UniProtKB/TrEMBL annotation:
The lineage of its organism: Eukaryota, Fungi, Fungi incertae sedis, Mucoromycota, Mucoromycotina. GO terms for cellular component: membrane. It comes from Phycomyces blakesleeanus (strain ATCC 8743b / DSM 1359 / FGSC 10004 / NBRC 33097 / NRRL 1555). The chain crosses the membrane at residues 47-68, 114-133, 145-164, 176-199, 211-234, 240-260, 317-341, 353-377, 473-494, 506-525. It is found in: Membrane. Pfam families: MFS_1 (PF07690). Keywords: Membrane, Transmembrane, Transmembrane helix. GO terms for molecular function: transmembrane transporter activity. Its main location: membrane. This is Major facilitator superfamily (MFS) profile domain-containing protein. It is a multi-pass membrane protein. It comes from the Eukaryota.
C-alpha cells in the first residue's frame, strides 16, 4: 500500500514512499538493497521463523492426546455425577475416574460433539478477523501477529487448566470460551499466514518454493516428535497438566522470541495518526479510510482476489489458485482412522503408528524429494538459459534473463500443482479400493506424495500480488481456509456418517472427485510467456 504523505527521512515509511505500487514487482528485492533497510538493521532470514515454527509444532502436537484425554475426563465426570449414585467403581488415587471407565458411548458422543463445536468456534472466529490481521500484518509487521497468536493460545490453555482444576466453580463454560481467545487473537490459520508472509519477505521467486517446503517439513518433523514427547511427559509426571504447562512455556518462549526477532516487512508504515494507520489504496491509487467494521468484513477482505493479477501467470490465476487451495483444505482430513477402526479393527496403537508413519513419509518428501526436484529444475533452467543466450548471440540483458527465469519457475510450480493434485486423486481412489490394512497403508503413502502441491501452490499465490499486499492476500487466504475447515466439518463428516452403514468407502471417492476438480482447474493456469516476450523485446 502506498500512502500520499511526507515521511521523516530514514523511516520505513519514507522507504515505502520511494516505491510506488507500479514499481514494486516480483523481482524487486525486499531485502538486501542498500536503500531499504537501515544500515545497522539485521537482515532477516527465513530460518528465523522456521525454527520457532518447529517448536510450535512440537508443543502443539504434544498436547493433542492430552487435550483429548482432558476433555474425556471432564465429560466423564459430568456423566457419572449426573447419574443417580454416581460412580460405582474404584477411583484413582487423585479421586478421578479411571479413563477406561470413560469408554462408554454416552461420554464419547458428548466429547465428539464438544470438540466439533470448539473447532467450529475457533475457525469461525478466525474467519471474522482474518482480513483485519492481514492488513495489520502489512502495516505493523509479521512478528506482531505471532505475538498476538501466542497470547491467544496461552489464554486458551489457561481456560482448560481452570476448567480441570475448578470444574465445580466454572463447570464447562471455559471450554467454550477458550476458542474465542484462540480464534479472535490470530488463530492457527492466521498464524500460518503471517509465517508464510515472513518467508515471502525474505526470499525471492527462485528459492521461495523450497523454503515453503522446508517450513512444512519443520511442521511435520515437529508433529513426529511431539506426540512421543507428550506421552513421555505424562508418563514421567503422571499428570496431563504437566503437558499443558510445557506447551504454555513453549508458546511464551515463541512470543518472547517474536519480540526480538528481526521484522521482515520493510514496507511497514509507522503512523502516529490513528486514522492514517487505517487507510488503504483503492484501485486508482487514491487513499481512503478503512473502518474497523470494513476490516473485519470477510467479503471485503476477499476483494484482493479479483483486483490483483500477476505479470507472470494467467490473468485470472489468483481466484483459480484460491479455489484449488479451498478444495484441498476441505479434503485435508478425511476420516481415515475412523474408517480403519471400522474395517480393520485398529485401535489407538495402530492409529498412532499410522499417524507417525504418514508424518514421517511427508517429512521425507519435503526434505528429500522436493529439494531434489528443485535442484534438477534449477540445473535444467540454467542450461536452458545458457542455450537461449547462445542462440541470441549473447545479446540478452540481465533483465531479460531474469524474466525467463521467473517464467520457468512459474512453469515448474504450475506443474507441481498439477502433478500433486493428480497424485491426490490416485491415492484417494486406491484407499477406497483397498481390501486390507497393508493395501490401505500403502495407498495412504501414495496419497502423501500429493503434498508436493502445497509449497508450489503457496509460491504461486504469493507471486500473484505486489510485495506490499502479501499480508492482505494471506489474510484473505486464511479466511477462505477457515471457511473451508468449517465446511469440511459439515460436508466430509456428513458424507461418512450417511454412508458408513452401506458404503463406508464413499467418502474417499467423494474426496477423489473434489481433488479431480482441483486438478482440472490447475490446467487453466499457465505462465504468460507472451507478456514476457513483449516486455523483453521492448527493452532491446
Amino acid at each position: 500500500m502506498t500512502f500520499d504523505r511526507q515521511d521523516n527521512p530514514g523511516s520505513n515509511a519514507s522507504i515505502h514512499s520511494t516505491l510506488s505500487d507500479s514499481e514494486v514487482i516480483e523481482t524487486t528485492p525486499l531485502l538486501g538493497s542498500a536503500e531499504l533497510p537501515k544500515p545497522n538493521a539485521s537482515k532477516p532470514s527465513p530460518w528465523y521463523i522456521i525454527i520457532p515454527v518447529f517448536l510450535w509444532a512440537i508443543a502443539t502436537s504434544s498436547s493433542l492426546a492430552a487435550q483429548l484425554e482432558f476433555a474425556t475426563k471432564i465429560f466423564c465426570n459430568r456423566y457419572y455425577q449426573s447419574n443417580s449414585g454416581g460412580m460405582g467403581g474404584s477411583l484413582n488415587d487423585d479421586g478421578t475416574i479411571p479413563i477406561v471407565d470413560c469408554a462408554v458411548p454416552e461420554v464419547q458422543s458428548a466429547v465428539s460433539q464438544a470438540l466439533a463445536v470448539i473447532s467450529f468456534l475457533v475457525f469461525g472466529c478466525a474467519l471474522v478477523v482474518s482480513g483485519y490481521y492481514g492488513r495489520l500484518s502489512d502495516r505493523k509487521g509479521r512478528t506482531v501477529i505471532v505475538r498476538v497468536s501466542m497470547l491467544g493460545s496461552i489464554l486458551g490453555l489457561i481456560c482448560l487448566i481452570l476448567t480441570g482444576k475448578y470444574q465445580s466453580v466454572f463447570g464447562i463454560s471455559l471450554l467454550y470460551i477458550s476458542p474465542f481467545f484462540r480464534g479472535f487473537l490470530a488463530g492457527e490459520t492466521i498464524l500460518m499466514a503471517s509465517i508464510q508472509a515472513y518467508i515471502t519477505d525474505t526470499t525471492d521467486a527462485s528459492v521461495r518454493t523450497l523454503m515453503f517446503g522446508r517450513m512444512m517439513a519443520s511442521v511435520y518433523f515437529g508433529f513426529t516428535i511431539g506426540p512421543s514427547l507428550g506421552s513421555f511427559i505424562i508418563k514421567t509426571t503422571g499428570s496431563i497438566y504437566a503437558v499443558l504447562y510445557f506447551v504454555m512455556g513453549v508458546y511464551a518462549f515463541i512470543g518472547f522470541y517474536a519480540c526480538i526477532m528481526p521484522e521482515s516487512n520493510v514496507f511497514i508504515t509507522e503512523n502516529e495518526d490513528n486514522n492514517e494507520s487505517n487507510t488503504a489504496c483503492d484501485g486508482s491509487g487514491k487513499k481512503k479510510y478503512v473502518s474497523f467494521l470494513e476490516q473485519i468484513n470477510v467479503f471485503a477482505a476477499l476483494t484482493i482476489l479479483s483486483r490483483t493479477h500477476s505479470q507472470h501467470i494467467s490473468r485470472h490465476a489468483l481466484p483459480i489458485l484460491t479455489a484449488i487451495n479451498t478444495i484441498l483444505t476441505v479434503i485435508l482430513t478425511p476420516p481415515v482412522l475412523l474408517y480403519a477402526m471400522l474395517q480393520f479393527g485398529w485401535g489407538a496403537y495402530e492409529g498412532g503408528l499410522f499417524i507417525s508413519l504418514s508424518s514421517f513419509v511427508r517429512l521425507i518428501i519435503l526434505i528429500c524429494l522436493l529439494p531434489v526436484l528443485n535442484t534438477l529444475f534449477k540445473k535444467w533452467c540454467e542450461r536452458k538459459l545458457s542455450d537461449d543466450t547462445h542462440v541470441a548471440n549473447c545479446s540478452s540483458t540481465s533483465a531479460e534473463i531474469e524474466e525467463k527465469r521467473i517464467y520457468r519457475a512459474a512453469m515448474f510450480d504450475i506443474w507441481m500443482v498439477r502433478s500433486g493434485t493428480m497424485i491426490e486423486v490416485t491415492g484417494l481412489i486406491l484407499m477406497g479400493l483397498s481390501f486390507n490394512a497393508f493395501e490401505f497403508t500403502s495407498s495412504a503413502i501414495i496419497h502423501g506424495f500429493g503434498l508436493i502441491t502445497q509449497p508450489s501452490l503457496r509460491s504461486l499465490l504469493i507471486s500473484s500480488v505486489n510485495p506490499t499486499e502479501v499480508g492482505e492476500l494471506l489474510g484473505a487466504i486464511s479466511a477462505v481456509e477457515a471457511f473451508a475447515m468449517m465446511f469440511s466439518q459439515l460436508s466430509i463428516n456428513a458424507i461418512y456418517s450417511a454412508s458408513v452403514s452401506t458404503m463406508p468407502t464413499l467418502v474417499f471417492f467423494a474426496c477423489a472427485g473434489f481433488a479431480g476438480l482441483a486438478s482440472l482447474m490447475a490446467f487453466l493456469i499457465h505462465p504468460t510467456k507472451e507478456e514476457v516476450d513483449v516486455e523483453t523485446s521492448s527493452k532491446k
